[in-house]
Amino acid sequence: LESLNANTTIDDFVIRSVDDDGAESPDYNYPSFWTLPSQVLGLAINVVSGTQLDLTWNAITGDGSATYTILSGTSSGNLSELQTGVSSNSFSVLNLTPSTEYFFQVIAVNNTGNGQASNEVSDLTDAAAESEITTSSITNQTNNSYSIEAEATENDTIYAVSVINGETPPS
Fold first, then answer.
1. pTM passes above 0.90
2. DSSP string, 53-120
3. What is the structure's pLDDT at 70?
């Protein structure tokens, strides 16, 4: 078998051997089988935050269902399995360390085995989110009754907190 395309089906075929004297062995019929999947192409990273990166790549098409294995690491060429059995052509990597460079490869997998790993790509997670309290007030009302209000900004998102008599009022 020569010049097989990746991720294709080879339908029923026969193997027959011939010895030096030209005598043929009995035919052995093989059922269909898959070739290894193609190499994953188009791997890209979208930096979402300091703790999340989203990966996307071109889906493997053809006869047969492929899943994907995600490899990751913090140094080039030193990657390990992060996730197996991914069924779509995208994956969110969570709980990362801010301001850290991460490296990734993706491998397509089918019933025959693993295809060739994608090219390695890398990107840097965002810096840690900065928070600051922009306004606050404490109001002592009567007989040990008090109100505390604060507003904080984190990456342009405003969070407001109110506490009245030691309890957070319902939203």
1. no
2. EEEE-PPP-SSS--EEEEEEESSTT--EEEEEEE-SSEEEE-SPPTT-EEEEEEEEEETTEE-PPPPP
3. 98
